[in-house]
Amino acid sequence: MVEPVAKIRSYRIEDEKQVRFVIAKAAMEGLASANMKTILNPLSLSLWVLLTGLLIQFMGWWPKSGDGILAYISLMLPFGSAAVPVILFSDWNNRWYFDDLSQHVLRGPDMVNLQEYYSKSPASGLWILEFAGRLVGIIALDASPLEKIGSNQKVHDTAILRHIYVDEQYRSTGIQKDLIDYALQNAFTASNSAVTQVKASSSPLRDYVRKALDETGFKYEGVSENIGLFRWKMSNRVLTKDEWKKKMTLDAK
């Protein structure tokens, strides 16, 4: 039996529908994490317990002496019911950001024609992570380098990592770091590449991406915005070509 293998390859036109779906999924995946963090916050848990107590008091469901253990087990019903408004409140307050983010991503300039956009620069690229012939991850590096100024063109030296995503069941392998390493290798070593630094963003709501960026050598540059009900910090990250070379040298030893 042939063992399934993982490989990273370039985007092809026939990947378009699946890649667009994964890009939208990546934009929305922080919502589940935001809701969970909101619900498990001590303030939310305290509100949950308070609502449970008020519901039991209002309905007169407090067990009486001699009712037996079943009376106490029945309190699970109001306990679960009181969780509903907490969950709805969390989702209602967090969802708007991710809905806006999803619309912004799906209307981005690269989404008009993925293949054409990521072919503008030798350093740019959109890559697919496959395992056993199935798409399990993607990454894009936007080094769109040319900006017309009159009759001249200005070459940008900064590239941006976009659309980093790996299916949840494969994240424990750390393969997301391999994806980032692959994109960086292309950014800094491609022929005619003028890229001297690569930027990316991270958040505690997509922790596997943040950890992979840290392991790859990206440095914290500052907070770009606060998101969600509890104002989680979106961070800007940067890795220069010189720092990348130093890390590659150290890793090779």
UniProtKB/TrEMBL annotation:
Protein name (Swiss-Prot/TrEMBL): N-acetyltransferase domain-containing protein
Molecular function terms, GO-annotated: N-acetyltransferase activity
InterPro entries per UniProt: Acyl_CoA_acyltransferase (IPR016181), GNAT_dom (IPR000182), NAT_camello-type (IPR050769)
Transmembrane segments: 45-63, 69-89
Keyword Phosphoprotein applies: no
Key words, A-Z: Membrane, Transferase, Transmembrane, Transmembrane helix
Pfam families in the cross-refs: Acetyltransf_1
Origin species: Lentinula guzmanii
Keyword Membrane: yes
Domain N-acetyltransferase, chain residue ranges per copy: 85-237
